[in-house]
Amino acid sequence: MAVIAGIFILGYFYPLLYAAAKMLLLAMGICIVIDSLMLFRYNQPVQAGRNLPKRLSNGDPNHISITLSHVYPFHASFTIIDELPFQFQRRNHHFDFKADAHKSTEISYELTPTQRGEYSFGALNVYASSPLGLVERRLRFNEEQSVPVYPSFIQMRQLELKAISDQLQDVGIKKIRRIGHTMEFDQIREYVRGDDVRSINWKATARANDLMVNQYRDERSQQIYSVIDTGRVMKMPFEGLSLLDYAINSSLAISNIALTKHDKAGFVTFGDHENMIVPAQKKRSHIYRIQEALYNVETNFMESDFNRLLTFLHNKVHQRSLILLYTNFQTLSSMKRKLPVLKHIASKHLLVNIFFINTELDDLLDSTPEDEEDIYIKTMAEKFAFEKRSIVRILNQHGIQTILTRPQDLSVNTINKYLELKARGLI
Predict the structure, then answer these.
(1) Is residue 80 within 8 Å of 49, Cβ to Cβ?
(2) Where's the DUF58 domain (predicted)?
(3) Cα torsion for 111, 145, 242, 91, to the nearest 10°?
């Protein structure tokens, strides 16, 4: 069109060019009509749809696909603009491709949500054009689709599969050397080289005329509670996820592992004025109840009431349990204010206090200061890191187990601690 306009301008001075410009304009008009007929002669030439899972996993890449088929008898070009939920803040999510005549095409991509809740996808906009490329036809599909984002069930399944296949050490979960053995009897079997000779059952050996040993198994039906702080200290974000979401994902994973080990799993949330509990149960289907409850957990900017937590646990949890307390202590003084409550909980339960390393300070700790301001900043970073280590030491002195971990290693380290305590027979 720009060329034709230029020829029209020159045609003012050269009449022959003016006639040529009119012929070109007519030819272009004819091509546009032909192109329009090629695209619009079919009532519904394109079928497209977005294939969403029933739910998305928070903090994990989720597979999503788009399928497109068309009945055009020519090699068509397509542009797909997918309207993603506002939570992703992406406005340029589009795909350009060509499809042969009467062919179906599938496009796959991944989305990683960073917060739980309802996600609404908008329309799927498809722009089709013929080989002439003069006209585009827009079609819209899937006007709106909603899908919930749940705590990380993908991570839960991965750890469950590795627990079943005894491959947990491959993701950093170490094997724990058992100190002695538990007293829960399992069965009598034949002796094999390497068995503890102290487990030989001499009466069974005499009856069978062969060495027989007693086999023991881990004690079962022990209560495991994940206690999550929903106060302002859990609002801190790391790599897109808040500490609360890291704790929720870890709680779901450890609950599933506990149920796999035939223990009872439950969880508690506490804040400034509201507490919630899902009582520990042993049924495998209980994991779905835990998942649904974790889906609705939210935090605020208020400081959590640890005294209320103490009263709540006293009234609701009567059996000695493993308490995995997810919270965060930024300073030594904040921990000391809560230490009397933690000691009281530890006197009735096996308490594991889980809090977080501030990974944002790693670069500061490894940097070389160049001026006085850098020296001051690095000194403050080292002070925070030292206080975290001091918190671990003081809690251990009072008989409270601790996990100081990076947020991304939380699930692995928590499962490590659970397996260690179970192997040592402390639960």
Answers:
(1) no
(2) 187-355
(3) 60
Quick one: 202 and 322 in the same domain?
no
**CA 110 centroid distance within chain:** 13
The verdict on 116 and 226 lying in the same domain is no
Residue 206 lies in domain: 185-217
Q: Looking at the structure, do residues 141 and 157 belong to the same domain, yes or no?
A: no
User: By the 8 A CB rule, do 230 and 244 touch?
Assistant: yes
Could you tell me which residues come within 8 angstroms of residue 264 by beta carbon, excluding any fewer than 6 positions away?
A: 221, 222, 223, 224, 258, 280, 281, 282
- 53 near 32, Cβ under 8 Å? no
Residue 169 has pLDDT above 60, yes or no: no
Element (H, E) at 316: helix 306-316
Measured in residues, the chain has a length of 427
Are both 114 and 243 inside the same structural domain?
Answer: no
What is the pLDDT averaged over residues 208-217?
A: 81
Question: Is the model's pLDDT at 209 over the cut of 90?
Answer: no
Give the contacts of 337 (CB within 8 A, at least 6 positions apart).
none
Asked if residues 252 and 278 have their Cβ atoms less than 8 Å apart, the reply is no
Tell me, yes or no, whether 209 and 223 share the same domain.
Answer: no
| Residue 359 maps to a domain | yes
Which residues, including other chains, have CB under 8 Å from residue 241's CB and lie 6 or more apart?
Answer: 58, 59, 114, 115, 249, 407
Q: Are residues 167 and 200 in the same domain?
A: no
CA dist 28 and 193 (Å) reads: 89
Residue 65's contacts (CB-CB under 8 Å, 6 or more residues apart) are: 50, 51, 106, 107, 108, 109
Count of domains in the chain?
A: 3
Residue 363 has a pLDDT of 77
Q: Quick one: which of 346, 323, 330 has its CA closest to 395?
A: 346
- Exposure b/e, 400-414, CB count within 10 A at least 16 = b: bbbbbbbbebbbbbb
Whether residue 354 is found in the same domain as residue 225: yes
> Do 209 and 251 share a domain, yes or no?
no
